[in-house]
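User: My collaborator sent over this chain with a note saying "see what the structure looks like." That's all I know about it. Can you take a look?
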Amino acid sequence: MSLSVVALIPAYKEEETIGATIEALLNQDRVPDAIVVIPNGCPDRTPEIVRDYVSRDSRIVSYELPKLEHKKPQALNLAWNKFDYVREADIVICLDGDTVLPANAIGDWEREFQVTAKLGGSSSKFTMLGGDFLTRLQRSEFAKWTDTALRRGYTTVLAGTGCAISGQALREVVATTNRFGPWSYDSQVEDFELTYQIRKLGYSCRVSPTVRAYTDSMKELNSLWNQRMKWQVGTVEDLLSIGVNRLTLVDWYQQAVGLLMAFVRILWVVLIVLQISIGIFHFSMLWWLIIPIVFAVGEGLMTFRIPHRDRWDVVYGFAIFPQEIFATLRSGWFLAAWASVLLSKITGRRKDRWSLQYAAEAKV
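Assistant: Without extra context I'll predict from the sequence alone. Here is the result:
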């Protein structure tokens, strides 16, 4: 028996990518029953482009909104409450306005929900195309995330970039939380918080073994930093609010490992500086070469799991410095995020990470 499938696409300043996102949905082996695009506060041509698609295909709806206080979560909730067929759908596909799905995506997702009892959501395997330095590092990072989630058999975040969510699970979230819609306004990582609520209801959430999604990477360091600070700050805030339980153990473990690695890096630099300052520093083959080489070999072997890799992805993996640079950045936003959250607890002032990310991406 076929299931009803609706796609939701909140879009803010996506004139360069929204067409490809919609085209990919229309070219699916199993096209969604309805595609709701939600341009919100767009000063560019995004609404105009969407209207053109609406005029050509009755399955597409444009729900244009002004600039919203709660941004993406509010756009999704308003669409949820506006359209009966969204609230009543068996599967709700959530996509960003720069995500492109391959033709098998919707059909494979539908089959997953048909054959897997109590499946709450299925996230796609994110892939970033491009040959610049930061894109290659992000592509490697997401390949590791995908492999880890597939081996584990579940995920703690159904990433809003591209995922399929059970309509029944969404309806139960609304019923049990008594909020305006499934997506929280209090969380800066609404997809993480929603996934927690779904898992709390007894549903399973996983990464699809067959559905891939192509999305944009952060091309500049400033935009990457602000994106990851939003993710990390939001995750820390939610974990502190939720607390430690069986559903958050993995996330707390990841936070602990991230902070430990950051402090180890700081300690390593401090020890080197101290040794140099008191004149006892000497070169150690084990310390300087063998250990980094072991890590480089591990990273290099992992590159063979990267989709659409080329020789430079492999070179970046086996070389020591590219991965070390990214690991240092990661340590930086782990420490900065925890400091920011603790400071906000003390001062009672909280930064709007959505705005900071939009500013870094020149979406303001």
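A starting point for your reply to your collaborator: The chain has 14 helices and seven strands.
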